[in-house]
Amino acid sequence: FMASYDVNDYVTPYVEAMFLERRSDQQIAESGAFGVPVVVDCNNPLIGSMCADAGVTTSQAQVTVKDAWVRATVAQQKATGAFMRLTSDSDIRLVGAVSPLPRGVGIHELIMVGNVLKMNAVPGVGLPSGKPVELTPGGYHVSLMGLKQQVKDGDEVPISIVVEAADGARQTIELKALARPLNATPGGQQRQHGKH
């Protein structure tokens, strides 16, 4: 069956958590700016897991997933993001993701429109042959919405990403993403704040 969730229910605290360092000089969009429902395939089961930086062979391509992580949350926070580096040996697209932790999962892009930060749902992200594609807090990423529990630093979050070849054939890739602190950046580094 398919379940539909409104991004407006979850994205405002999620965006604020990801961009705390920008709040002093960037206007965070109000929840009404997002307004795109996310449709989740609830029939796609998790059938296993593997190390995030292991290569995974699909019928269409060899896909390598590295540095998969999610941002830890605070109590009562209902959304977060998953990030990773994807490399394929042929032209394919990332078209979806599922996870047992949230009630809704979607692929989104964060963009600046004027001084307003907006998050838009996208149908997919191209993975050109041989070119690493980064899913990052400030760009394309996997949104985990309607979290059933807090994501704590060090937790392993199972996520299945779905890739699609040019002929429409799809393959699910299972992985575990490690939760990092709220102030983590790609590569596992934490932001350092000097004394004022």
The end-to-end span amounts to: 54 Å
Rg, alpha carbons = 16 Å
Number of helical regions: 1
Helix content: under 10%
Strand content: over 45%
**Ranges with pLDDT <50 over ≥5 residues?**
1-13, 16-59, 189-196
Annotation, overall tally of beta strands: 14
What is the mean predicted local confidence, pLDDT? 75
Description:
The chain is mainly beta. It has one helix at 11-18, and strands spanning 2-6, 27-28, 37-41, 55-57, 62-71, 79-88, 92-98, 102-113, 116-121, 125-127, 133-135, 140-147, 156-164, 170-180. The strands form 2 sheets. Strands 2, 4, 5, 6, 7, 8, 9, 10, 11, 12, 13 and 14 form a 12-stranded mixed β-sheet that branches. The termini are far apart. Mean pLDDT is 75; it is low at 1-13, 16-59 and 189-196.
Which helices and strands occur, and which strands form pairs?
Blueprint: E1 2-6, H1 11-18, E2 27-28, E3 37-41, E4 55-57, E5 62-71, E6 79-88, E7 92-98, E8 102-113, E9 116-121, E10 125-127, E11 133-135, E12 140-147, E13 156-164, E14 170-180
Parallel strand pairs: 2-9, 5-14
Antiparallel strand pairs: 1-3, 4-5, 5-6, 6-11, 6-12, 7-10, 7-13, 8-9, 8-12, 13-14
Descriptive terms for the model:
196 residues; mainly beta; twelve-stranded mixed β-sheet; two-stranded antiparallel ribbon; 14 strands; disordered N terminus; disordered C terminus
